[in-house]
């Protein structure tokens, strides 16, 4: 068999044990690891067309996989101003003011990554930005990607002048006189104004997606579990052109109101795709987010909100889960609040009971799991439900002293059980780590570092939030290698460095297990390999 890639002088790290393999070289052919051995033996396999790389002692791990990201949707949202660096109203106003001066008359201003903590104890509304955005149509995506702050001019152009009624959890937030404040909650409300703005061209969407994916490959990612409801045509086009640098497993959305025909279409789509992407699963939402008051909690938040599910009738969600389970389709459900997580687990338990002992039963997942009580923890392992978590959300959007918006809304008791990665892991749950990009940084080393140190990424000198919930270095690595493969049923050919396994590889300048957590995010990624071909190569190699 022709050998496509040879890696020499490597330290091959086994994420199952945390030890280095005895071999120091690797050969890949036809997208798989073809051989492991010493430098001389593996070099002898190289032919005229083989790419040979001397790694000079660099560390090779199985390719890092993001367990939850939105490349298509994120490439749409993450355009315009990156507002994630704004920490107070003064900085936000200054940033927006510079952009307004650059805009042509009538041009829309786009921004993303806005943290509600910028508004301090005050409400999130457009009024504090009025001096800057006067007459400017502006769409400012909140960091959670579930809410948006829009200017009065944008509301005017969209014809939104009061409250609206939706078929799913969503709200045009209004003051006591029924006038919109500028805050829109959940996608149905956001779309009212988004559709009034100039729409990007298909070519522009494709280019932004390709750029985003190349950046992910350069950060060491070889794959991702995609939670996007659209854009499959763009993935197919990139794949056909040989421009898809990640292996993607896509779960299209199932929203409230999905009828029998639409559900059948979701089932029909399963296992379709291309060489490097495949539809495998369905994404659902059980609630929104804590920060905007749309999470589903067992007790109200400090404002008396967060008491309702995203599905107007949660029983409809349970019925959908049962039907998808019977069809052998795995599901991934966004569930942030404790009531939402409990309802998902209850629904999965009922679906399993209705089909006991099924040999090909699909594996279901809960996404986010930001706060859960003790009696929920053990149910993940018992039901075989994957715990998909994003530790950098805790790092970057909450504070150790609970003065942040998320913690204030929940109160001390629930804020003290934030992102229980350690407890879920110890309870036997299969924990998969991800970024939820564009909500947080997609760099996998940042995600792994956050799982270990639980400190704000921009200021690692600040105290950690819930250090007792930190994972070990090995567990963090497993959360982005072995565990994603197990979660998708690919453990027999992915997530390990073994002959016959996929040649999806990440090469780092040093051992991620011995690199201090606070330094891990800056560890150089020297080479990323997908399907046996480099998608990123540092000039030093």
TrEMBL record:
<dbReference type="InterPro" id="IPR011059">
    <property type="entry name" value="Metal-dep_hydrolase_composite"/>
</dbReference>
<dbReference type="InterPro" id="IPR033932">
    <property type="entry name" value="YtcJ-like"/>
</dbReference>
<dbReference type="Pfam" id="PF07969">
    <property type="entry name" value="Amidohydro_3"/>
</dbReference>
<dbReference type="InterPro" id="IPR032466">
    <property type="entry name" value="Metal_Hydrolase"/>
</dbReference>
<dbReference type="GO" id="GO:0016810">
    <property type="term" value="F:hydrolase activity, acting on carbon-nitrogen (but not peptide) bonds"/>
</dbReference>
<keyword id="KW-0378">Hydrolase</keyword>
<dbReference type="InterPro" id="IPR013108">
    <property type="entry name" value="Amidohydro_3"/>
</dbReference>
<feature type="domain" description="Amidohydrolase 3">
    <location>
        <begin position="52"/>
        <end position="535"/>
    </location>
</feature>
<protein>
    <submittedName>
        <fullName>Amidohydrolase</fullName>
    </submittedName>
</protein>
